[in-house]
Design a protein that fits this description.
By secondary structure, this protein is α/β, with parallel strands linked by helices. The protein contains 9 helices and 7 strands.
C-alpha cells in the first residue's frame, strides 16, 4: 500500500513510518523542516528500509498541494502541536497557532486527499486525535479544544463520506512518552507567571504530576500500523483501553456538576 504520514519526524509518526516501510509498504513521511528529513532518511537506512521523505508543513497550502500529487491508499494525519496554559491567561496568538496546526492544517490535508479517494471509491484517513479530544485536561484545555474540534470534524467526515468506499477513523492516545507532552508543557514557561495567575496555588502545584507515568509509545505505533493495514477498523481507537472508563466518568460528571464541583477526575479516584 501507499501510505502518507504527517508529523513523521518523531514519536508515533516516526515509529509508524519505519515499521510500515519494514512491512513493505510505500511510505511517504512528512516532516516539518528539511533537517528532520535528513535525520529520518539516516534512521531508515540504519533500519534497512526505504522511506520517501518530504518537507510538509501542514499549515501551508502549497505543501498540502505538493503532498497531494501522490496517490495514497492511507493518509495518517499525525502532525500536531500543544500549547499549554490557563484558558483565561494564555496569549491568543498561541491559541490561534494551536488551532492552525491541529485543526485547520489537518482539515486541509483531509480536503487535499479526500476527492481522489472518493473518485476511485477506496482509501482510508486516520486522524490522530487524543484522549483530549474526549475530555478536557486542566491547563491543556487549548490543546484539548483543538482535539475536540478535530473529533467533531472527523465524525462529520465519516458521516458525510459514508458509502463512498473511503474509511475514516481516529486514534486517541492517552499519556505516552514520546516527548510531545513534555514539550507542550514547556510552552507555557515562556509567558506564564504563577505569582499573578488567576488559578489557585493548589491547582498550579499539581501541574508537574500530570506528566508522571507516561506509557511506552510502541502501543500506539502498533495500533497505527494495524489500522493502516486492516480492511475495516473501529471508528474510535482509544489507547490504552484501560482509560476508557475514566473518560466516560468525566463525561458523565459534566452533566451534573454545579458551581464548585470539579469536572476533572483523578484516575486514582476510580480505583
Amino acid at each position: 500500500m501507499k501510505i502518507l504520514i504527517t508529523g513523521a519526524a518523531s514519536g508515533f509518526g516516526r515509529g509508524a513510518a519505519l515499521e510500515l516501510a519494514r512491512r513493505g509498504h510505500e511510505v511517504t513521511a512528512g516532516v516539518h523542516i528539511a533537517p528532520q528529513a535528513t535525520t529520518l532518511l539516516s534512521e531508515a537506512a540504519e533500519a534497512g528500509v526505504t522511506v520517501e521523505t518530504i518537507v510538509l508543513d501542514i499549515t501551508s497550502m502549497e505543501d498540502q498541494q505538493y503532498a497531494a500529487r501522490r496517490e495514497v491508499d492511507v493518509l495518517i494525519n499525525n502532525a500536531g502541536v500543544m500549547e499549554a496554559g490557563p484558558v483565561a491567561e494564555i496569549p491568543l496568538r498561541r491559541v490561534r497557532h494551536n488551532f492552525d496546526v491541529n485543526v485547520f492544517g489537518t482539515l486541509g490535508m483531509c480536503q487535499a486527499f479526500a476527492p481522489r479517494m472518493v473518485a476511485r471509491g477506496t482509501g482510508k484517513i486516520i486522524n490522530v486525535t487524543s484522549m483530549g479530544g474526549l475530555v478536557t485536561v486542566p491547563f491543556a484545555a487549548v490543546y484539548t479544544a483543538t482535539k475536540h474540534a478535530l473529533e467533531s470534524l472527523t465524525e462529520g467526515l465519516k458521516a458525510e463520506l459514508a458509502g463512498t468506499g473511503v474509511e475514516i477513523c481516529t486514534v486517541n492516545p492517552g499519556l505516552f512518552g514520546t516527548g510531545f507532552n513534555d514539550r507542550g508543557a514547556e510552552t507555557m514557561l515562556r509567558w506564564f507567571d504563577p505569582t499573578s495567575s488567576l488559578s489557585r496555588p493548589e491547582l498550579l502545584a499539581g501541574l508537574s504530576a500530570g506528566l508522571e507515568g507516561q506509557l511506552d509509545p510502541a502501543m500506539v505505533i502498533d495500533a497505527l500500523v494495524t489500522i493502516a493495514e486492516e480492511q475495516s477498523s473501529k471508528f474510535r481507537n482509544v489507547l490504552p483501553v484501560e482509560i476508557i472508563p475514566w473518560i466516560k466518568a468525566i463525561q458523565e460528571r459534566t452533566w451534573d456538576a454545579s458551581k464548585d464541583d470539579s469536572l476533572f477526575i483523578n484516575p486514582a479516584e476510580l480505583g
